[in-house]
Amino acid sequence: MDKSYNYLKDPRVLDEIRKHKWIESEKSNREIGFASAAVEWIIKYGPQWKQYHGASQFDA
Questions:
Q1: Distance between CA atoms of 37 and 24, rounded to whole angstroms?
Q2: Does residue 37 contact residue 24 with C-beta atoms inside 8 Å?
Q3: Which of 15, 50, 53, 60 has the smallest number of CB atoms closer than 10 Å to its CB?
């Protein structure tokens, strides 16, 4: 996981995590929770999202 970027401080990322949470909860027919969705999204999509969006305002 890319630890130099604080994903949870970016409102665009929070929106993406909420979408991911909804989709994955629907797939599994149960609520997966925000924390689980956030960890999963950051691992699966975080680095690509950061690269695509050129997100650097929250770099450490």
A1: 8
A2: yes
A3: 60
